[in-house]
Design a protein that fits this description.
Length: 258
């Protein structure tokens, strides 16, 4: 079975990205997985200038880089399973093969963010964020005390069977569908939304088979309790950039967590 890990890193990668990419490359070699890093924009998705609520900063590159990850869909003509992971994810040396954890009868697998051992400090943030993103959607995202249920799309694992839910559309055609216009244009609560809301809406509304994966496959550093960091397979350095902070490199600090 041919498997691929797909990442996007347009522009000059940070030191954090470089370090994380190296861990992914090493992991792929260990398990015989192909690894592809897209370094140039392909889809170049832009919101409708007549209706968009996006800031000029969001489109300063002339496109929305947040939607470039969906180019991975074109690789299903060569692969049976594809994982799309963010460039700020570091994979530990002892991490199991993630594809072996995906239910072969499901179309899509990911980690529900509120399933993580969320810290008390992050609890309000996830509740407010998820309410704003999902409360007004007609799909059932099942709220509880931590807010609405959604997949953290920093890591997505898919079987080839998901292709049928693209309905023959190219990645660009898929994103530019009328049903997703409010997300692309950043209307209302979705002004700052990424592809995460669009994809969560899609995977639920389509009725595809969903696999709720163990939280250890996508541990948000800064969101989960510190005592649980040691248990994570894929460390997601959420909102970090690995830059210098005074005389101390943030990247060196992050490396200590591994």
């Amino acid at each position: 079975m041919r498997r691929l890990i797909f990442q996007v890193s347009v522009g000059q990668p940070s030191n954090l990205y470089k370090w994380c990419h190296q861990s992914v490359s090493k992991y792929c070699k260990k398990y015989g997985i192909d690894h592809h890093i897209q370094t140039e924009p392909t889809l170049k998705i832009l919101p409708d200038p007549k209706t968009t609520n996006r800031s000029q900063g969001a489109i300063r590159l002339g496109y929305l880089p947040i939607y470039e990850k969906e180019h991975a869909f074109t690789f299903f003509d060569r692969y049976e399973q594809i994982a799309i992971i963010d460039s700020d994810i570091y994979i530990r040396d002892n991490a199991p093969n993630i594809f072996d954890s995906l239910d072969i009868h499901s179309d899509f697998g990911g980690v529900i963010e509120r399933d993580m051992p969320i810290s008390s400090r992050y609890a309000n943030k996830i509740r407010d964020y998820s309410t704003g993103q999902y409360e007004k959607l007609e799909t059932n995202h099942k709220p509880n005390k931590l807010g609405y249920e959604f997949f953290n799309m920093g890591l997505m694992v898919m079987n080839k069977s998901i292709v049928k839910y693209l309905n023959g559309l190219s990645p660009r055609e898929f994103i530019m569908q009328k049903q997703f216009k409010k997300f692309v244009d950043g209307l209302g609560e979705w002004k700052w939304s990424t592809d995460q809301t669009l994809l969560n809406y899609w995977v639920r509304k389509s009725g595809m088979g969903l696999h709720r994966m163990d939280w250890k496959w996508n541990g948000l550093i800064g969101a989960i309790k510190e005592d649980n960091i040691k248990d994570v397979h894929f460390l997601h350095f959420y909102m970090r950039n690995g830059n210098m902070q005074g005389d101390v490199s943030e990247l060196e600090q992050l490396k200590k967590l591994v």
